[in-house]
Structures are given as C-alpha cells and as structure tokens.
Design a protein that fits this description.
Blueprint lengths: L2 H10 L20 E5 L2 E4 L4 E4 L14 H11 L10 H13 L5 E5 L2 H16 L3 E5 L12 E2 L8 E2 L6 H4 L2 E4 L4 H10 L2 E6 L15 H11 L3 E5 L11 H6 L5 E5 L9 E5 L1 H4 L18 H14 L4 H22 L4 E6 L2 E6 L7 H4 L4 H13 L2 E2 L8 E2 L6 H19 L1
Parallel strand pairs: 3-15, 5-8, 5-9, 9-10, 10-11
Antiparallel strand pairs: 1-2, 2-3, 4-12, 6-7, 11-12, 13-14, 14-16
C-alpha cells in the first residue's frame, strides 16, 4: 500500500469521504500531494505529474511563483490578519475597479461561495424581489439559493442537496444557457431579482457563449429591471485582464470573483454598480461580513498575480500555448475516430466524449463519463494530473512551458492511440 492509500484510510475515519471537497475524490483513493512547483505536483510517494487541474483555477502563474510568493511572504512577516482595513486590501480593490468594467465598487469576501451568496442577497435587497434565475448546469457555490436543480416547466427549482429547504429552492428558476428564449419566458412570468450566470460555463466543463447570446441576456434583463450577475469566480482575471465581460464586451450589473484574485490563498469578491453596492452594510441595510474578508495576505498575493498576468502580453502568450495543446488533442481525437469534441477559451479547455457538441449544460452533462475516467487514469499513469471529474475544466498556466506541454501532448497522443488499438 502506498503512502496516499495509507493517508486516505486515516482520512476516511475523521472526515466525510476522506476529502475536504467532493471533487477531489476518486477510486481507489485520491492522491495526497506533498508539494507543487510551477505546473508540476509531487505526491507523498515522490511521483511527479504535470498538472492540468491547477487547484481548479487559482494558480494561473503556477505553484510557488516567485513574484507571488515574495508578496505573500512580505505580508506574512507583518501579520496575517488584523480584523481591520489594510493597505493591501485597498490596493487589490482599486486594481479590480481599474480592470473590471462592472466594478464601480467592490466588497471582498473569503471565497467564491461567499461572494455569490452575498451578491444574490444584495440583488434581492436592492430590488425587493425574491426569485432568481440560474442556468441549468451552472454552479454558484455551496449555499442554499444555488444548490437547486431545474423544476418541471417554468416551475421553481428543487433542492439538489439534502438539507436545502424546498421553500428556498422554489425561488430559484432555471434557464438553459445559450437559449435566450428560455430565460425570456421566465422573466415574462416571474418577478425576478437577478439572473446569476457564468458568462463562460465551467461547472459542466467549458461551455462558451454563442455569438450575440450575452448581448441578448444583457438586453432582456435590462428590459425587466432585473440585475444581471456574472459569476466570474473562474473567469475573473483568466478569460482576460477584465474577465469574460471584457473579452465579450458585455457589462453586467454585478460580478463575483474568487480563485485568481487570492493568488493561491482563500479569497472572493462581489462588485458592481455604485447605486447597488452602496446598499451594503455599514453604508446600507444589506448585511455582508467575514472575519477573513479582505485578508491582507490573500490581497497581497492576488495583486501580485494580477500584476504579473497584466504585463508582457502574458494573457496572449498563455492563450497561444493553450491553443497549441487543444489543437493536438483535437487532431488525436479525429485520427482515432473517437466521438467527442473539445471546447476551449483563453487558457481553459474541456474534452467531452460521446457527443458532437456541448453548447448547453444539458448537452455537456450527456457526455460519456466512463471514457473520460479511462483517459484520467491513463494520464495519471503517464505523469499527467487531470481533474478527476469529467465535468470540470483543464487549466493552463504561465508555468506550462515547452517541456511540460510536450509531456501533455505525448500523454494525450498515447491515450488516443490506446483507444484506437
């Protein structure tokens, strides 16, 4: 029995499922990681992997990036949390305001889940309405308003987790991504406080907006005086320096972020129009708080990571590397006659098996998960760590360079060749 298996046996005795988040689990046991450098992980048994999970998105400059690490250590030497405002906190907020089109004002939080939870509360408090819309397959954190699956027809949703009250879920309606009519139908019938959506879906793998779709979403939400919230927890400072909203030229009323803005430390933020954010306590009557909100270490590390990404055309360089790898995967898929497709944007991509396209959450969720699991295990055996779940996103980073990309290409080529045989 290797060390990861031994630690997993210990872990199962003291934490549910032996993991701190469900997406980390896979059979027979998840890997326990000892260290990460650049785009490579080393497990507790000393095996090394080129990583495409990258901690589910935060590590866009890689593990142990010297610039980010230096900023974090400098702040740690001064103290890790104060329970009072700090200059790093303000510096990060001002940088977000500068880069993100929708960010007139910003409130920092402790995670993406907190950010979306607070944003929905703010939208409800500002509009005086109860009901919200999310996309089928969209994920907006592990809180009650978001853990909702589609109901029948135009009915409100049903809980997607035990413990979520039906009386809460009934206020969450579900529309189909890339289908503006499904959203319009609900808006015409219900008094909706907000539409919360990932402008680029990431909870079912990468699903990108069709041409003009986000513009139509912006148009119909304005017509109904409904607040449009872009959940950019994944895409914020990844899809571009200003997120997906800058990339596609569509400005929502509010935005949520996490992951990259913490530089590898826990962080989140919600932001938006000044007339909306002014209603947040202590300035207004909508409550949002957190002991670690605006943590100075997270803020210092996050700002350093953003600064690094926003210079020397690093976004452009990273996108080209991603396009190279995606092109290789698509060629391998075609050569092996494996049915599937690859969706990609910026430095994100997803491989879907068994379907010709994935333009909605429903289509993405129909992908062949057994084939993905086969690829995951092959790649793991050949020194590549993919997200264990079929409906997650592969992330590239600045640390993925020539040798690393070659390892990835050889891994994918080998997998598809094995399928062909």
């Amino acid at each position: 029995m290797d060390r990861s298996a031994e630690l997993y046996e210990r872990s199962k005795k003291v934490t549910p499922g032996g993991v701190s988040s469900p997406v980390r689990a896979f059979k027979p046991n998840p890997l326990f990681i000892a260290e990460g450098h650049g785009c490579r992980l080393k497990d507790v048994d000393g095996r090394e992997y080129v990583d495409l999970c990258m901690s589910y998105g935060p590590m866009i400059t890689g593990y142990g990036c010297p610039i980010v690490e230096k900023a974090a250590m400098a702040q740690i030497s001064k103290g890790t949390v104060y329970g009072a405002p700090s200059e790093p906190e303000l510096d990060l907020i001002e940088r977000i305001v500068k880069e993100v089109p929708s960010a007139d004002m910003v409130r920092l939080s402790c995670s993406g889940t907190e950010a979306t939870m607070h944003a929905i509360r703010v939208a409800r408090g500002f509009t005086g309405r109860d009901d919200i819309i999310k996309m089928n397959g969209g994920f907006h954190g592990a809180h009650d308003a978001a853990l909702v699956a589609a109901g029948s027809g135009s009915a409100g949703g049903v809980p997607s987790s035990k413990g979520v009250l039906a009386d809460v879920a009934k206020h969450t309606f579900t529309a189909q991504y890339n289908d503006i009519q499904s959203m319009s139908d609900i808006l015409d019938k219900q008094d909706i406080a907000c539409v919360i959506m990932e402008p680029i879906m990431g909870n079912v793998g990468v699903v990108t907006p069709e041409k003009g779709y986000l513009d139509e979403v912006r148009k119909v939400t304005k017509e109904h005086d409904t607040i449009l919230i872009f959940d950019e927890v994944i895409t914020g400072f990844r899809a571009s320096s200003g997120g997906a909203q800058l990339r596609y030229g569509v400005t929502p009323d509010m935005t949520t972020m996490g992951k990259i803005i913490g530089g590898g430390f826990a962080a989140g933020a919600f932001m938006g129009r000044k007339d909306i954010l002014e209603n947040v306590a202590p300035q207004g009557g909508i409550y949002a708080a957190g002991t670690f909100a605006g943590n100075p270490v997270s803020a210092a590390a996050g700002l350093a990571q953003i600064d690094l990404m926003c210079r020397n055309d690093n976004y452009g360089k990273l996108e080209k590397r991603t396009e190279r790898l995606v092109s290789t995967i698509m060629d391998c898929m075609a050569d092996s006659n494996v049915k599937g497709c690859v969706n990609s944007v910026a430095s994100m991509f997803s491989v879907f098996f068994g379907i010709d396209r994935a333009t909605t959450g429903t289509e993405a969720m129909a992908a062949d998960r057994e084939m993905y699991d086969r690829m995951f295990r092959y790649m793991l055996d050949h020194g590549v760590y993919l997200p264990p779940s079929a409906l997650e996103v592969d992330f590239m980073s600045l640390a993925h360079r020539g040798e690393d990309i070659a390892v990835l290409e050889e891994g994918f080529k080998g997998f598809f060749e094995s399928v062909k045989k």
